[in-house]
Design brief:
8% of the residues are buried. The chain is mainly α. The longest helix is centred in the middle third of the chain and has 40 residues, at 61-100. Helix 1 (9-32) packs antiparallel against helix 2. It is built from four helices and no strands. Keywords: Membrane, Transmembrane, Transmembrane helix. The chain crosses the membrane at residues 42-67, 73-100.
Length: 135
Amino acid sequence: MQTKANIKKRDLRIFSFALTVILSLFSVKFCKAMNLQAGGALLAMALATFFIGLFLPILILPVYKILSFIGKIIGHIVTALLLGVIFYCVFTPISVILRLTKKDILRLRFEKNKTSYWISRKNRTSKRENLERQY
C-alpha cells in the first residue's frame, strides 16, 4: 500500500471522480428500482465525493486507503483462484494424457541398456556466424 508521502493529490482526485461515477450509477439503478430514498442518499454521497475531490482531496484519503487495502486482498484471492484453475484445467489434463500414453518428453526415464545419456548431434560444424547470432 502506498504511504501518505507517495499518494499525490492528482491520484486522490482521480479516485474521487471514479467513486463519484460509481456512486452515481448505483444511484440511478436504485432510483429505477423505485427505491428513491436509497437512490437519493447515494446521489448525495456522489455529490459530496465530487466536491471533496475537487476542493479538498486529502479528505478522501482514508476511503482511498481502505478501498486500496480491500482491492489488494481481492487481488490476491483472484490471483490464487486463477492460477489454480489454470493449473487444474490445463496442466493436469496434459500430465494425465502424457502418463496414459507413456510419453517421456524430457527423457527422464531410466534405461538400463543405455551406456550414456549423451545426445549426439550430426552435421555439427562450428562457424563464427553461429556463435555471433545465437537467437
